[in-house]
Amino acid sequence: QVKSENSKTIWNTEEVPEGAEFDDTWDLREQPEYQILFKQSVGTEDVFFGMSRKDPSTACCEDVVIKIKLPETKHSDITLDIQDKVLDLRTPTKKLLLHLPYDVDSKNGKARFLSEEETLEVTLRVSRKFDFINF
């Protein structure tokens, strides 16, 4: 039996999964169709000469692009909240809680609504630690 520091706490913070504060099991709105894409900037030195250590894997990507299909939705009806590991999107008919594959810079992202395609496109910069690939 684990003894907690404060006798009034119900659970330990380690027991609660990250992003659980956004989960709402009683919300019956439909989850929209979405796609996660990875983007990296490459130059001729990467493509033709192989001078950098970049490869086509997601470990070398700089951005995450999330495309969310929102049919019959106006851009004014969209509520978007982005945290370092979680994207939370809400409209009157749809709800998406997406745990992101990498930590992102939540302060400097871009979102645009393509009304012809009825798609919201969110571009987020991946926050990585510097290593032998990302320097």
UniProtKB/TrEMBL annotation:
InterPro entries: DNAAF6 (IPR026697), PIH1D1/2/3_CS-like (IPR041442). PANTHER family: DYNEIN AXONEMAL ASSEMBLY FACTOR 6 (PTHR21083:SF0), TWISTER (PTHR21083). This is PIHD3 protein. Pfam families: PIH1_CS (PF18201). It comes from the Eukaryota. One of its GO terms (molecular function) is protein-folding chaperone binding. Belongs to the PIH1 family. It comes from Zapornia atra. Transmembrane segments: none annotated. One of its GO terms (biological process) is flagellated sperm motility. GO terms for cellular component: cytoplasm. Residues 31-126 form the PIH1D1/2/3 CS-like domain.
